[in-house]
């Protein structure tokens, strides 16, 4: 399975609605709302600002009206007890969004960690958002079965967001099964990952239920400006995977990010995440270290100025740090 997924992953390396943005805070007020039901125009999507934020975890409003936290915890490579502990720690320090996948082979541990955390920390299920992904190319019947396995593995009554992990030969048939699970209430939102711009535009034409987001490699070295514009025009949120480019290109010691961070007493990790958040990009940084979890979520109490933004924009190489997505 692992090997098959590695091959699949290599494969997507090769190939590879409407939405609104809300700055709503847990238990706090709403700043800007750009939603399907909002009267604001499309052009305003790009003008949304996440400014003057208190130290909370704000939300994006998806094209189906559901609110999703801006920041979540990535779980790739988290395994066993340390995965369970990471989920509980993350809940403790304020994370409410968790990103896993069939391929990560940790859904059970993610589920145990979340369910235990909810009980012991007295958090309501409705206040958390769990994403998983279908990682194998499957026919309609197998997809239906695999959706139920995801629910069983996670030990949840519903999944907040189910993604197609990449473009598959059977993407349309898989989406059909996903739409049915959505209508049955097993899944609250449907989305994509690693779809090229071309495939994204053709695929959404075939969807009865539109994807709410596309999860793509996105970070300061690969900023996705053009693709984000296309997603915005279709009301689909961009969510960044590997928002630190997994430390590649010396992300954590990058001089530009370090220098900007000094002005705000923030680390390169915080500056890099804040940059994406200011562009209304959701982020799922991964760490199993509670101090880093705290650091990575402490990005809502400062705002980059226009000079910072343009300097960081210049870091864009317009290329994948992993060499596996054609965009
Ligand atoms: N859809 C897809 O195809 C796809 C592909 C890749 C990833 N993803 C998702 O995106 C998530 C994030 O991507 P990723 O895990 O590849 O990489 P990432 O989040 O860009 O980087 C994770 C790395 O950064 C380190 N790190 C985290 N916070 C740090 C900090 N504040 N200072 C210094 N180092 C820090 C982590 O180390 P420690 O853990 O030791 O702290 C880990 O080595 C994944 O976990 C997964 O959920 C999706």
Question: Tags for this entry?
Answer:
327 residues; alpha/beta; 11 helices; disordered N terminus; binds NADP nicotinamide-adenine-dinucleotide phosphate; AKR; NADP_OxRdtase_dom; NADP-dependent oxidoreductase domain-containing protein; oxidoreductase activity, acting on the CH-OH group of donors, NAD or NADP as acceptor
Structure notes:
The chain is α/β, with parallel strands linked by helices and 327 residues long. It has a single domain, classed as TIM Barrel (Alpha-Beta Barrel). It is 38% helix and 15% strand. The protein has 11 helices and 12 strands. The strands form 3 sheets. It has an 8-stranded parallel sheet. Strands 1-2 form a two-stranded antiparallel ribbon. The longest helix has 15 residues. The chain starts with a helix and ends in a 14-residue tail after the last helix. It binds NADP nicotinamide-adenine-dinucleotide phosphate (NAP). The site of NADP nicotinamide-adenine-dinucleotide phosphate (NAP) has 26 residues, from helix 10.
Q: In the CATH hierarchy, what is the architecture at level 2?
A: Alpha-Beta Barrel
Describe the sheet with the most strands.
Answer: 8 strands, parallel
Helix/strand-derived category reads alpha/beta
Q: What overall geometry do the principal axes of the alpha carbons give?
A: globular
From the N-terminal CA to the C-terminal CA, the straight-line distance is 27 Å
CATH fold descriptor: TIM Barrel
SSE order in H/E notation? HEEEEEHEHEHEHEHEHEHHEHH
Strand content: 5-15%
Radius of gyration: 18 Å
């Amino acid at each position: 399975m692992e090997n098959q997924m590695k091959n699949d992953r290599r494969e997507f390396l090769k190939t590879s609605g409407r939405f609104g943005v809300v700055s709503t805070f847990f238990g706090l007020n709403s700043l800007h709302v750009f939603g399907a039901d909002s009267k604001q125009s499309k052009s305003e999507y790009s003008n949304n600002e996440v400014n003057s934020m208190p130290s909370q975890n704000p939300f994006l409003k998806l094209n189906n009206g559901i609110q999703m936290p801006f920041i979540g915890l990535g779980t790739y490579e988290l395994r066993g007890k340390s995965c369970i502990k990471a989920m509980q720690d993350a809940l403790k320090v304020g994370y409410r969004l968790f990103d896993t996948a069939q391929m990560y082979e940790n859904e059970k541990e993610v589920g145990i960690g979340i369910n235990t955390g909810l009980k012991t920390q007295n958090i309501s299920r409705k206040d958390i958002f769990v994403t998983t992904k279908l990682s194998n190319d499957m026919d309609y019947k197998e997809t239906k079965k695999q959706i139920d396995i995801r629910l069983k593995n996670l030990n949840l009554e519903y999944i907040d967001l189910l993604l197609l992990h990449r473009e598959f030969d059977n993407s349309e048939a898989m989406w059909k099964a996903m739409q049915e699970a959505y209508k049955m209430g097993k899944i609250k939102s449907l989305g994509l990952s690693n779809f090229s711009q071309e495939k994204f535009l053709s695929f959404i034409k075939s969807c009865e239920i539109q994807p709410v987001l596309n999860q793509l490699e996105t970070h300061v070295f690969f900023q996705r400006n053009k693709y984000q514009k296309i997603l915005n025009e279709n009301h689909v949120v961009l969510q960044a995977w590997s928002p630190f480019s997994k430390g590649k290109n010396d992300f954590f010691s990058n001089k530009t990010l370090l220098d900007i961070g000094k002005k705000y007493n923030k680390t390169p990790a915080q500056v890099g995440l804040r940059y994406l958040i200011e562009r209304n990009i959701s982020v799922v940084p991964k760490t199993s270290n509670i101090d880093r979890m705290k650091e990575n979520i402490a990005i809502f109490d400062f705002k980059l100025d226009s000079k910072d933004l343009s300097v960081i924009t210049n870091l864009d190489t317009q290329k994948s740090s992993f060499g596996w997505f054609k965009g």
